[in-house]
Specification:
Helix 1 packs across helix 2, helix 9 crosses helix 13 and helix 13 crosses helix 15. The chain has 17 helices and 8 strands. The longest helix has 24 residues. By secondary structure, it is α/β, with parallel strands linked by helices. It has an 8-stranded mixed sheet with strand order 3-2-1-4-5-6-7-8, sandwiched between helices.
C-alpha cells in the first residue's frame, strides 16, 4: 500500500501543531483541509501560514506563497474531510475526546482513508478501538514546531493493518521527515526515554544537592545538552510537560521511574507555565536577576552522570522491551529532542559496567525501584559488550 501524491490531507486542530502539520503537507505538494470548530483558531492559522509562506518566499525557499495558500481549505466541520486520503488529528490530549472524534470520522470518510493521531502519549490502540475501521488507524507523532523538527514517531496500534506502517513511513520520508517506528506503549520513544531528564533533575533539586541554575549548568556545560532540564521545562510549558509526565506515570501503572514531582505540580498550580506566561522555574520579567551556578567540577559531574545514567537505562530498557530498534531509539533522541549524542553511544563511551555501577549505587542508597537497572544493561555489563559495533 502507498499513499499517492494526489491524496488530500486532512488536519484537525488549528493550533500551532495542527497548522504546522498542514504547512508540512502543503510544502510536500498536497492539497490540505484544515478543520477546527473555532473560527478564531482557523483565522489565526490562516494568517500565520500566509505570513510564514511570505517570509519563506522572501528568503527564496519557496517560489509562490499564494499558490500554497490556495491549496488549503479551512473548515469548521469534519464533513469537509470526506474525500481525504489521510486525516491527522492534533487536538486536545484527552483520550475520550479523541475517541469521540475518530468514531465520528469513521462515519464520513471513504473506505481507503487512513486516520492518524498526533497524540504524544495516549494509546493508539484505545483510539482505534473507538473507530469502525480500527485497522486503518495509526499514530503519527510530530514534534513542535512541526515544520522544523525532523522526527516523526510512527506508532501502529495492535489493530493496524501492517501495510499502513511502511506506507506511513514512506510518506513521512517524502515529506522530508525522519520517521521512526515505535511500539504502542506509554510515551512511545521520546516521551518515555526523556522522562529522567526532567524527573531526576527535579529529584536532585528537591534533595537540595544543587539549585536549578547549577543543574542546568551541569547539563549544558558537562553534558553538552542545548538546554538544561529546568530551562527546557519552562520552554515546553508546565501545562504540557507535567501532564505528559503524569499521563506516562499513570499509564505505566504508577511505576516509580516516571513519578511526577510536587515541585513541578505546585508551579503549574500557581499558573507559572514557563516562558510563555513570563514565569516558571525561572522569572522571565525584564528586571529579573539570574543567580550564578555553583561551578565546582565534582558536583557538576555528579549531577550530569546521575541524569545521563538514568536516561541510558531508560533507552536500554526500551530496547529490551522491543519498544523500538536500537537505531530508531538513537535517531529519536538525537532528532526529536536534540540530545548531543545517542544514548547507546554514550553508554559505550562510559562503559556498561560504569553506568550499571552508578545506578546500583543509587539503588543501594535509596532502595527505590526508580533506580532499578535494566536486565539488558546488567547483561551488557557482565560481558563488557558494546551496543554499537
Amino acid at each position: 500500500m502507498i499513499f499517492k501524491d494526489s491524496i488530500i490531507i486532512g488536519v484537525i486542530g488549528g493550533g500551532s501543531m495542527g497548522s504546522g502539520i498542514a504547512q508540512v503537507a502543503l510544502m510536500a505538494g498536497h492539497n490540505v483541509i484544515l478543520c477546527d470548530t473555532s473560527t478564531f483558531a482557523l483565522e489565526n492559522a490562516k494568517a500565520n501560514l500566509y505570513s510564514t509562506f511570505k517570509k519563506l518566499q522572501e528568503k527564496g525557499k519557496i517560489q509562490n506563497a499564494d499558490v500554497l495558500i490556495n491549496n488549503i481549505t479551512f473548515s469548521n466541520t469534519i464533513d469537509a474531510l470526506k474525500d481525504c486520503g489521510l486525516i491527522i488529528e492534533a487536538i486536545i490530549e484527552k483520550l475520550e475526546v479523541k475517541q469521540s472524534l475518530f468514531k465520528s470520522l469513521a462515519l464520513i470518510v471513504n473506505d481507503t482513508c487512513v486516520l492518524a493521531s498526533n497524540t504524544s502519549s495516549l494509546s493508539i490502540t484505545s483510539i482505534a478501538a473507538s473507530c469502525a475501521y480500527p485497522d486503518r488507524v495509526i499514530g503519527l507523532h510530530f514534534f513542535n514546531p512541526a515544520p522544523l523538527m525532523a522526527l516523526v514517531e510512527v506508532i501502529p496500534a495492535i489493530q493496524t493493518n501492517t501495510a499502513f506502517i511502511d506506507a506511513a513511513k514512506n510518506l513521512m520520508l517524502k515529506w522530508g521527515k525522519t520517521p521512526v517506528i515505535a511500539k504502542d506503549t506509554p510515551g512511545f520513544i521520546v516521551n518515555r526515554v526523556a522522562r529522567p531528564f526532567y524527573g531526576e533533575a527535579l529529584r536532585i533539586f528537591e534533595e537540595d544537592i544543587a539549585d536549578m541554575v547549577t543543574i542546568d549548568y551541569a547539563m549544558t556545560q558537562i553534558g553538552n545538552f542545548k538546554m538544561g532540564p529546568f530551562t527546557l521545562m519552562d520552554y515546553i510549558g508546565h501545562d504540557v510537560n507535567f501532564v505528559v509526565t503524569e499521563t506516562v506515570f499513570q499509564a505505566f501503572y504508577y511505576d516509580a521511574r516516571y513519578k511526577p514531582s510536587f515541585t513541578q505540580k505546585r508551579v503549574l498550580e500557581a499558573g507559572w507555565l514557563g516562558k510563555k506566561s513570563g514565569k516558571g522555574f525561572y522569572d522571565y520579567s525584564t528586571n529579573s536577576v539570574q543567580h550564578q551556578p555553583n561551578t565546582e567540577p565534582e558536583l557538576l559531574n555528579i549531577i550530569c552522570e546521575r541524569i545521563v545514567a538514568m536516561l541510558i537505562n531508560e533507552a536500554i530498557d526500551a530496547l529490551y522491551l522491543k519498544v523500538a530498534t536500537e537505531a530508531d531509539l538513537e535517531t529519536a533522541m538525537t532528532k526529536g529532542v536534540n540530545y548531543p549524542k545517542g544514548l547507546f553511544k554514550w553508554c559505550d563511551e562510559l562503559g556498561s559496567d560504569y553506568v550499571l555501577s552508578l545506578l546500583d549505587n543509587l539503588y543501594n542508597t535509596y532502595h527505590e525501584d526508580r533506580y532499578r537497572a535494566s536486565v539488558l544493561l546488567r547483561k551488557q555489563a557482565e560481558t563488557k559488550s558494546k551496543f554499537l559495533q
